[in-house]
Amino acid sequence: MKTILLAGAALAGLAAAPARAQQTAPPDTAKLRRILTPEAVVTATRATDKTGTAYQNVSRQQLQARNFGQDIPYLLDQTPSVTTTSDAGTGVGYTGIRIRGTDGTRINVTLNGVPVNEAESHGVFFVDLPDLASSTQSIQVQRGAGPSTNGAGAFGASLNVETLGLRPKAYAEINNSAGSFGTWKSTIMAGTGLINGHFSVDARASRVQSDGYVDRASSRLRSLYLTGTYSDDKTLLRALVLTGYETTYQSWYGLADSLLHKNRRYNEAGTDYGQHLPAYKNQTDNYQQDYYQFLISRQLAPTLNLSVTPFWTRGGGYYEEYKAGQTAVNYGIVPISPTGPDSLTDVIRRRWLKTDMYGATFALQARPTNSRITEATLGGAVVGYRGQHFDELTWAQRGLSIPETGTRYNDEPNAHKQDINVYARLNVSLADKLAGFVDLQNRYVRYELYAPDGRPNGSKSQQTARFTFLNPKFGLTYQLRPSTQLYASFAIAQREPTRTDYTDTPAERRPTAEKLYNYELGLRHATEKVQANLNFYYMYYRNQLVLSGQLDDVGNPIHTNVAESYRRGVEAQVTYKPVPVLSFTATATASQNKINNYTDYLADYDQGGEKATTYSQTNIAFSPGLTAAYTVEYEALPGLKLATLARYAGRQYLDNTSTEARSINPYYVQDLRLRYLWQPQKLGFREVEMAVLVNNIFGTEYVNNGYTYGYVYGGQTQYFNYYYPQAKTNFLASLNLRF
Fold it and tell me: What is the pTM of this model?
């Protein structure tokens, strides 16, 4: 199951208001200059041009140009080193993002500095927060370890999301999108603007639905967003409530490779691997997440600001599934005969997760004058977590004693986690053209969970794991010329194992924490017409957790620590605007992603135990050696823009054996977008925007995710590959009315 995203107090600015609105409202702008606006509150976990790291800021305008209802990962697929996944094949529902080959469990996500990653799985499930992009001011994508942040350690990248900032004038918006596969997004937004120069209220309601490209891969998503803000010249208070609810028909099983060119939309969910036909109609995932935050920011002195954000994230839900031929006594059912036909039964069960994550983040920031220290930050977070895992039976086919509907047949003791981190960062001017930073973080984790305890009978018990991580970071930035910057940095990041790393492995094979040594060297260049960045990275891992080739007793993959592994590559990005009506943006990453001295394990049902194969060096799974993307946009007439977008990903291996037969083929996908922005103010509209997005215009048959497993049986080695096929040519159209 899962849990996810957080929402928080917005720290963004007036960029959301169109230039025309700002120019025609000087009284409101003057009021804003006399109060502490959200954009004046520095987000402590964001990188700057002084922190010597690789990052990209994605603005609200860029997000809205692509916001037709697809999840945030798909709105970021033009940023460097990114690949995306979609279980349903449309970018709606369960989606994922990988950066530099690392998956979502290693990508640290914060919303206004507050941790988002689920405390036990480390995952981020954007499906739980539909249409978050409509309430987002900007997203900073940090590649590599990045600056110190709150929550789980960044082992490949960070996503720092900021919600909408203060808008000085009252507004209302109605946004609707519709298109292929029954996809429909409907959003209503409104805000009061500044009331008496100090107060404002903003609200949003969204509904997103899609039938999915894959059979029955439907999504029914809802979200509500509400903020209230008070601000004066020294104080900012903002309360935020955000809730998201999702019901999706399961499509996480993937498609057997034998069906890829025969019936690529087939979904075996609800059939229990073909044992139940027709498919069970309610094979669904259901989850709700509620977020409560309160930002308190106070200017203690002209150069000193303190921000504190208490928060509470509450989640709960289940996935329901049909299972055939189950052992009756495992569900509390007493059979007539322990060996008779009634000892096995078909069941419908629900597997539940309920979570509470609570705590506070803080940041004390100073910007001294007449000092070589240009900025000093003391920050951190105190986070508590409780997770409830239990299963209940809702129906059984047969049995002498069938429990009442909703009876729990498996109820684990609650999991508890405490995560405390403190960091200090200094930005220093070392010379006229040379600046440096030092960033020191100490993180303490205490995790209590129910897991195998290593006794011969395979028993489980409540256990406690503790970790203390010291993560230093250093960097230099040299101004070669006014438009050109050279930077270099070094960082150490460490990360504890996830819940399944404990529950799916015997105690004697239990993995340990991972450690990353991250080196970055880059060159930035920015002029009126050209912005370019060239970045070299080397990420050296000790004890990185990777797929072992082993499966647990229910078929889940088991991770193992590998002593040495690395990722190294070069990232290039350029934006060129030769004339005001034409822009070109391109990114490309070439990389090597290797494990040294890797042993792969395969279950051997002939001899018993496992068959081991050792590789002196091999490729890390799901890490393409080449990724690229580009966008070309041309304004043919005032307000009418035509854009073409493309992305490419090289071969990705499903396991760590570098076997082409178990890999995702390279793919190239091209999209086309047409937007028209009209300002019919005489009709009562501030703006009217109409847009059409055609995805995969060449109808490419491709997959962007998968998995594999195998075993030895009857003297033969057998492997089974499963893939997630993506939609061929499809479209989305939108009409946005802004008042």
Answer: 0.91
